[in-house]
Design brief:
Elements: H1 13-64, H2 70-80, H3 91-101, E1 138-142, E2 156-160, E3 179-184, E4 189-193, E5 202-204, E6 207-208, E7 224-227
Antiparallel strand pairs: 1-2, 1-7, 2-3, 3-4, 5-6
């Protein structure tokens, strides 16, 4: 006589709850690490883009005697017969001169993943060239005067990501996991810590990136002026 054995099908409610709890616990551990990895990848892309921009800044300096500023805008227009808008005071406006001088230059190198940017569409004609949101870097000048390759090597020329695309040297801690990307005149780039208390970038000895004086890269005769990118939608 065969025994009448009933086989249990599926999981009990308790077993299902245990599985759900385990999955949730694993997700809570893995998700922050995954987000940090994505942010590090975005920071690496921004660093690579900044160094790529420097190559064209270098070539621009060789041709026009400095990096882009208001004084080079008209010279670029005459030399290239460009129809691109070159006047303005945002980093988009100044860096657009690089596109005017090198028409096949891709907009992609100006991109930084931030809340105020969008991925460039690749259109570099008329007002579509490096339009609002397509540049994520802040551009540093000496008031109205552009820097150049002959400047002090340690001086920054491009920075990201700025907090709300502001010009007060505040940086956004979120995009790159608390770090800011800084490109210097010697084409070196590094990720510096953004302070939690004030969103400023510290450079040692209690100084911040924008501080001037004897013990800073700017010295006493240089007035670092940050030109912020134009936010998307503006």
């Amino acid at each position: 006589m065969k025994a009448n054995i009933k086989r249990r099908k599926g999981f009990t409610l308790v077993e299902l709850l245990v599985v759900i709890v385990i999955i949730a616990a694993l997700a809570s551990i893995a998700t922050p690490a995954a987000f940090r990895a994505l942010k590090r990848a975005d920071a690496t892309t921004a660093t690579s883009n900044a160094k790529e921009i420097y190559k064209f800044l270098f070539l621009f300096d060789e041709e026009f005697g400095s990096f882009p500023d208001q004084t080079t805008a008209e010279t670029v227009r005459e030399a290239t017969d460009t129809s691109l808008p070159l006047e303005g005071d945002t980093s988009n406006d100044f860096l657009r001169q690089l596109i005017a001088y090198t028409p096949d230059l891709s907009e992609k190198i100006f991109y930084v993943k931030t809340p105020y940017t969008v991925k460039p569409d690749g259109v570099v004609t008329n007002t579509d060239a490096l339009k609002a949101g397509e540049c994520g870097f802040g551009y540093i000048m000496d008031q109205e005067i552009a820097q150049g390759v002959s400047g002090r090597a340690g001086r920054p020329v491009l920075v990201a990501p700025l907090l709300n695309a502001s010009t007060d040297w505040s940086f956004d801690r979120d995009p790159f996991d608390g770090k800011a990307i800084v490109l210097r005149l010697d084409n070196s780039a590094e990720a510096l810590i953004i302070r939690e208390r004030d969103n400023k970038v510290g450079v040692g000895n209690g100084k911040t990136l924008e501080d001037t004086g004897d013990e800073t890269v700017w010295g006493t005769e240089f007035t670092p002026t940050l030109r912020a990118p134009q936010k998307r939608g503006n």
